[in-house]
Amino acid sequence: MGRVVLAFSGGVDSAYLLKVAHQELGDGVLALTTSSPTAPQGDEDLARKLAADWGVPHLVVDANELEIPGYAANPVNRCYFCKGSLYRICKAAADERGITSIVDGVNRDDLGDYRPGLTAAEEAGVVHPLVDAGMSKRDIRELSRRLGLETAEKPSSPCLSSRFPYGTEITPERLDKVARAEQVLRDNGFPVCRVRFHGDMARIEVPVDQIATLMSGAVRERVLADIQEIGFLYVTVDLKGFRSGSLNEAIGRKPAPIGPSADLPQS
After folding, report:
1. Residues 12, 74: one domain?
2. 135 within some domain
3. Which of 34, 156, 170, 266 has its Cα between 20 and 30 A from that of 139?
């Protein structure tokens, strides 16, 4: 490709791709990171650090996804709006510099989930080198370890908007509540976690083998108190445990009826 703009979030996949791209192309690669209130805490800082440590040209662009028409309403294809905005920013940077190729860190495993952002990538002509190489997340972590990358063991950190059920409005205040609640879990020894927003209720996901630890006396009381202090009235633990994209499980399902069941005698 010669020269590329690489969409760089600071996550496991894009960090590995950036390292290899820089080895292959030198200053022919421009890392581009968007600064957004929907990004998990610390990701932008890590992206800045890695690019600086590796000597990669790095462009950080302010991009508030909540200002994209239709995004804050959180439709099922929300990621299409987000990625479409990201790729337009990448294309503008590429055009300004006479670069014709835009690449990202999508891997083979991403193709098996519901990801409307892939449609936006296809429309923008974005190339997925890790997919072309047939690489899975496991492959990327293993090769990241061989390269000594600090991101090799980094938990996946999709945008904070993924914590909201489709149709639930996304606001800066709600994003902040979720981010702070997840920080409570990390501070208590749960680096892999999600806090799903359900109005007054926070639904916690941690790996199944860590649920018992979370529910132990002192940890449970501390997590409960701190998350309620953030503003959640109810704090629950999902017994299915952590899983990426758990809110996609509701796609295509009809909501359960609210009110007395027709099958039960009425008092």
Report:
1. yes
2. yes
3. 34
Six-digit token string for 103: 């690449």
pTM above 0.85, yes or no: yes
Residues 130 and 175 in one domain: no
Q: Which two tokens stand for residue 255?
A: 């909501």
Structural domain tally of the chain?
A: 2
Separation of alpha carbons 173 and 155, rounded Å: 24
Instruction: List, in order, residues 6 or more apart from 249 with CB less than 8 Å away.
Output: none
Q: What is the pLDDT along the chain (267 residues), one digit of tens a residue?
A: 999 999 999 999 999 999 999 999 999 999 999 999 999 878 999 999 999 999 999 999 999 999 999 999 999 999 999 999 999 999 999 999 999 999 999 999 999 877 889 999 999 999 999 999 999 999 999 999 999 999 999 998 889 999 999 999 999 999 999 999 999 999 999 999 999 999 999 999 999 999 999 999 999 999 999 999 999 999 999 999 998 766 666 665 554 444 444 444 443
Residue 235 lies in a domain: yes
Residue 265 lies in a domain: no
Q: Where are the beta strands (DSSP E) in the chain?
A: 4-7, 29-35, 58-62, 101-103, 194-198, 201-205, 234-237
Structural domain harbouring 211 = 171-250
